Records
---
Amino acid sequence: MNPHHSHIARTRREFLTTSASGLGGIALGSMLSEDGVLNAATASQSEDFASLRPNHAPKAKACIFIFMAGAPSHIDLFDPKPKLNELHGQKLPKSILDKARFAFIKPDSAVLMGSPRTFTKHGNCGMEFSDLLPNLGSCADDLLMVRSMHSEEFNHHPGQLLMQCGVSRFGMPATGSWINYGLGSTSKNLPGYVVLTAGRGSSGGSSLWQSGFLPSNYSGVLFRNSGEPVLNLKNPNGLPSELQRAGLNALRDLNQRRYQEVHDPEIASRIANYELANRMQSAAPELVDLSGESQHTLDAYGVGRPEPKDANKRRGTLPGLQTYDTFAKNCLLARRLVERGVRFINIVHASWDQHSELNENHAYNAGAVDQPVAALIKDLKQRGMLDSTMVVWGAEFGRTPLGENRQGRNANTGRDHHPTAYTMLMAGGGLKGGQVHGKTDEIGWAIEDKPVHINDLHATLLHQFGLDHLKLTYRFQGRDFRLTDVGGNVMRDWIA
Amino acid sequence: MHFYTRLCIVLFISLGHGWATPVDFSRDIRPIFSEKCTLCHGPDDAKGGLRLTGLKSAQVTLESGKIAIVPGRADDSEIIARTHHADPDTVMPPPGKAEPLTEGEKALLTQWINQGADWPQHWAYTPLKRPEQPTLTDAPDLQNPIDAFVVAQLEHEDIQASPEADTITLIRRLYYDIVGLPPSIEQVNTYKEAMAANRDAGYARLVNDLLASSHFGERWGRHWLDIARFADSDGYEKDNSRPDAWKYRDWVINAINEDMPFDTFTIEQFAGDLLDPSSHNQQLATAFNRQTLTNTEGGTDQEQWRIAAVMDRVETVGAAWMGLTLTCARCHTHKFDAITHHEYYQLFAYFNNGDETTIPAADSDMKIRVLHERKKDRRQTHVLRRGEFKQPTDQVLPGTLASLPSVTHRSGSDGDRLDFARWLVNGKNPLPPRVLVNHLWAHLFGEGLVATLNDFGVRGERPSHPELLDWLAAELIDRGWSRKALIKTIVLSRTYRQSSNHRLDLADRDPKNRLLARQNRFRVEAEIVRDLSLSAADMLTAKLGGPSVFPAMPAGVSDVNYNSAFKWKVSPEGDKYRRGLYTYFKRTAPHPNLITFDCPDSNVTCIKRTRSNTPLAALITLNNDTFTEAARALAKRVSKDYKPLESAFRHCLSRKPLKDELKQLSTLLDTSIDYYTEHPEDAERLSPRAPERAPLTATVRVLLNLDEFLTRN
């Protein structure tokens, strides 16, 4: 996109979505006279957005980013380390120990901790997974496994911000906000960026799907797991939809009258947004109504699964939360959202932060996500949607090969934070499946080959959407900001 | 940069200057230097002896014996020779170091040198002088000098200002702007009569009455709390509660109600603890610095987060007082503005010995978090390589920016927060008064004279009315830094009193209304959206100050963060309906009604709120319980009136409905009556215990959603 176009597009978007009555006023002004206020303003919300041009031909149209907040252990799930098992109970070489930072581990007495899990090769490609993830294993030939992810953030909240927003500071837009800013929404009846959550909640909370300095209509919209999926979706108690409609008609006519008097295009935009709100009132409940899905599909995802018997002892959940069922539903909802034109879906699942009793708690968490994520990938593929839908599975960092030995905890049953090296999974969206990218050393501590920074992951993600991460910028406080901050390289090897 | 240049050109044409514009250094040349030259020839480095920081340094004899810039003679200027050179070993910038100059840039550079290489100081750093009031050829009844500046520019463009807005719009505009509440029907009548008797005197009386109202402090205090990134919780991770936070919020409200001069207001917040003597309230004021986020997550290196908090303080001062974006200079010398990497840490040094502590509250057992100066073991400050707390390099002493007037440290002080605060508001430093009047202006016009409120640097927009900005800044200082005096001066102007109707004749020429040929109209802020509805329904509890309150919140919202110890317990009746600014603000799970209407997340300073217009916002005023309660209460308020619909209309919009407006509402009321007659069970649901009011409730809720109601006109 040449800079002039990008400027016009941006001004237009600002105009249409915030109160800035910018240069776009001229364009909208003429639309208003041709089509009448309502039609033009309604169009501006969808078709006009969709016509924004990417930088190059896109492969992906939607992304489902499954965020495993708290950080799963790469060593127990994806990256088998027989040598670590051999060295179980021994100290870490001093050369590494001196350089490392730990949250809770006392470095003097810390020892390496092998994994009790067993690993098996899957698919034609022979990708290895631990026995905690048999279903994901069955998708191996569609998966890109990156074993060389790294981050510089050592704590959860900054690390989560980095993964979600490309920068560990507050106030930056999330990836989903950037993509919708760059390409617009293709959904007429739903927001372009939807967030689903399961489990006990992440430390980052809503800051993980903020729009930062972008207008708030680019924020992720959290769909709720109980009650109405979007806040304030239901009419006031005792107000039937026919009266809601009659009220909206009166409101539209009164606002339109006002528009003819003061000529402020913001009024047209307000009318359009009330109409979209009204469409969402029926579209969102329709979305979450799974009665049209076959029993086969529901079972494949694991919708309605009971919690395991020992769930009340597990840290990835809280009493009363049906995490297994919720996560399964979220995966199915993600597919339904993509079908309805939503560009970016975040499924946030927390928490994987196992400083002790990792084996039991990871088994619980893996049980929650393994079947639904695998079902999602297979379902997308079977429906011909996987090529245009990128699925990402990952977290803010990994976990240490050392066991954790802090006081008050069961020593050497958990692992500490480990941003130096960890694993993520991707599928679809024009990425090449059946490949493992990168390599860690024999104990899973450091990267030995092809390191990938989070900014690189984001650059590649944008690339698949037809966006150049260097060109998708927003001027704020005198600087052109981008998702990839000052880094980012497109990982050409990943692309099919 | 290209589109920045183009944008300027577009604006230029639209403002009627045409094409034949001479090259302007700030607009055309400085961006070239910043992006392509100063990495090697700037404040940090002078390769070959060239430092492009001013005309003087660009004219020295280089190591090569040549001179980079010879004003008036592009042919003799080495910079032209080298940027045009064909040999990749000679051409500047060297391939790989920066993008080569485009043909357009080369032409601009050549023309600029031939024009005389004028290299003016960036406007924002120039000393503050009170400009002469322009004389007008065709002076309408000017109220005050503001109008002279604005009209002079309009006359130059041959544009007529808009007529004054009608009386009711003016009364409402002042109520929305100054106290953030709608006027009651009685108040409208009182001032309407006063203005009918003597328009200017009646208007001025209203202004005085509103400025004296304690709601003024709530309205303008909230503006300040955006800057202070005020919240009731820690922010990171556990996001623990800060039960004392409201004490500082009340300090702000009181200070603004008392019209504490802005210089005192500045000094007490930065360094109230360093004043001698220092009162309890002055120490409390330093809680401004303690609004920074806290990370108590396990394994955090506390020094890392202490440094992050100090950086946040530095950057907040930069944005809020100086209109400068300092963040870049954490890691490297600012690419565009005259802020070096060293200078950033000189500023940092003023704050580096301010430690967080608590003092007892004056009236309870509560502990209040404030700042106090470390006396022993004072920290030395080092430049941090790439902003990394573990990579200290050169030691630096407290000091300010070379591009601004110098600072004086008290005898015996090697530079602390008090010295720094006094330097900010000594009247010689031109940035704080310019920035402050621009903030005040933006709250009264929806946009600043400098549109980039937080960026007065070279990449920010230039003032639409530079002389007016300086006149206001000079006036502020002459009036003893009184915000009330300045607000009064602005709202008394004809410029402020203009109609806000969009002008079709100017849609092409001045689409952003930079010339101020009309007022602006804009949707009110998040807190005010709710305040307006509660007021129209006569539900608002008007109590001033006190602990933060918990209005109704949809179930589950406050649980997104994993600190499950926190529960949102809805306040009892009275506190449930306090003004929006008293709503408890939990950083990781703020009230959705606030956030959806662009209330800032309070994690970093917010100088300018966005004003989005979204379906989620529409859903709130359509369906949220609070607004349904308001509709119910409004229906109750008017149900016994002679003409309930007209009455409700007047409570919301202060005017009588027009005939066709009334018809729309009557039709809706009839439809509602029909429905609820057939569905008494729904009537009971919408309007419990008073089902007879269900049709009216279903009708008046439309008023609470009207653009005219939610917009400051």
---
Amino acid sequence: MELFNNANIALTDIPLVTAKEFRAEIIRRSRGEARLVNLFGALEPDGGVRLFAILGFDEEAVLQILSTKIPENYPQFESLARELFQAQAFEREIAEQWAITPQGHPWLKPLRRHPNYRGVTDIWQNASPGSSPAQYPFYSVDGEEVHEVGVGPVHAGIIEPGHFRFQCHGEEILHLEIQLGYQHRGMERLMCGQDLKRTALLSESIAGDTSIGHSIAFCEVAESLSGCVISARAQAIRAVGLELERLANHVGDLGALGLDAGFLPTSAYFGRMRGDYLNLLLTITGNRFGKGLCRPGGVLFDIDVAMAEDLLRKLKQYKKEFDQVSDLLFSRPSVLARFEGTGTISMKTAKKIGLVGPASRASQLERDVRINYPSGIWQFHHIPISLAATGDVYARAIVRRQEVTRSIEFLLKILPSLPKGELLTTLPAMKPETLAIAMVEGWRGEIMHIGITDHQGSFTRYKIKDPSFHNWFGLSLAVRNQDISDFPLCNKSFNLSYCGHDL
Amino acid sequence: MIMILSILCHWLIVLLLAPFFIGVIAKVKAFFSGKVGPSVFQPFFDLIKLFNKGAVYSKTTTWIFRAAPMVLLASVLILSLEIPLGVFKAPVQFSGDIFFLAYLLALARFFMIAAALDTGFSMEGMGASREAFFSCLSELALFMNFITLALLAHSLSLSHMIGADIPMSWSHVGPALLLIVASFFIVLLTENYRIPIDDPDTHLELTMIHEVMVLDHSGVDLAYVSYASAIKFLIFSGILVPIIIPFRTGDLVMDMLIFLGGMLGLAVCVGIVESSMARLRLNRVRNFLLIAFALAFFGFIVTMWRG
């Protein structure tokens, strides 16, 4: 069954196949053009679990959805992960959420550490609520000169908690295992069965630095389910918010990359400039992280002519400043010596593990939701894709630089001629027993929200996928055979979300 | 009695001056980042704060962990007595005191490395291994420089090797001095854990060298370590500055001002270096230190060749 971004489909219309066909179809498609965009389970009224797989055909801008049923009395299926690497995290998530065993999974550990949603015994015998995510065995390497380094979950800097277990030979990293889950808040379940006014607020807190990205995805799911079409003006204002969020974060990341390489001046300048972009969001929404901008049915804040002019004037100035400071960063031989050839991910690996966002574009994969699956304003405005070929820290930095330039150009183009229209329309009731998909290119990459409604039209299952879900594994692979002292630099070049992953 | 007084006076000057130059470096770095930055006296406030705090000790550590900061501070304080500070002559000087200097440095380092290993923390172990490796290489360059200086000065005492007491000037042995200054500057950056070898401001445990070794020290112990680092910087710049400015005007006030100006200038230089380049990749540090050795070695050859 083929779908477009922002489409909805009645649950009964989704093809239901046997587990064997399900597996075969996913593998067959993924060997061709498709990639696995999502794989998740939803509880059926009879106690079984229905697995949904969503495959993305980036070239054709279509998504394929298929499903299979796992009966309550036989909670297992044959794992895809050995043949299809991208599936490994999804399968661990399914195993944890629904106590279903993916048979033959190469590294079956809980992703987050919480009791399963079915209320049955967990598939891990030693699981007890409240236990630490790091109590499961880690992959270890033996040898006389091999040593193990554990970092986190409490870090020296003010960052989110996560545990990193390195297997090192001297200064060289042989293997890195990342154990997250410390930030688990039960977001997916909180989104279900609530009033939309409340879920809208929750969606902004899925990942604090991607408030706008996630809230747009949520709004699009709700609008799709209720058949509401928002005005062009509301779509444009959402896009302005999304790009400002991208600008603030990319600029902040470039500064942080400089800092981790020990190059101080640009980190201070970029840090200040990040504040400038956040202040633009403040001007529009009254909140530096854009909270309260997007609501189902449209947006809550308008950009009037005077404000648009003010934004334009400031953006032109910021663009000049940004170019100067980036030139300073990218022209220093000592900085380039740190960036180039560090943490390389080849295009082949990136494809295999299903990277998304700037990290994938740095490995020359053309993955950008704004271009591949355009919705809203992106159907009319085309942003050129920013690619780099080398897949190293330098590539991830230069992709960010390019995207900043292009986002500013987009804003300069759209702000003087914002389309007319109503800001907020009232939302009709959501359709019962329907599934809706929304994809948004957040600053980290592909955000995907999926909502499934019950017979009364309220959410019974809400699936959130932050780009970090795909990309954390990329970081593990990027640091292989690198110096352990280069890990922070690699980490910053990905800059992934802990809470976006842990939900 | 006069000896004791002069030693106490020397220590007083060292203790008062040392944190000031660390403050100057921080100020320069702040300037290049477009910030106002903390006052140049901030290191004093930090030290006072630390001295007023209690220390926390891990149960896995032994007496070595507690002794190391004291050994370190005591070593650098004794060392500082060998360094002439402008018009104030070094209270301790004897033939061969450069070896005393090098071995006291090594003693302090040995205790710090042992203390880091004592914590049983994997990252402190890595820091210790890096410290041991890099100091090996920087000692090589340090000794090469001392050999050349000794040849020039025909003396094995530090006070005679540097400064204006000897017939040594840029016009006579300029090329050799230039090489020594360049090499010694690298040694100074390494021994004081500055960029491009180490980053004193980073919060990333995995990249640190010195900072990770002292992660477990707290309160008074940390104050000892920080004070010792500041004094170490003073010692190294106290050696380098008279090499760069090896002359005296004869006027006491003038000479002192020139010396202090030189020290200040050096701290500013270190700040500028830290602001204008990124840190080296860790596996390139050894090449950088070998450059320091090569420079020192060429200085030696140039000196030998001149006779």
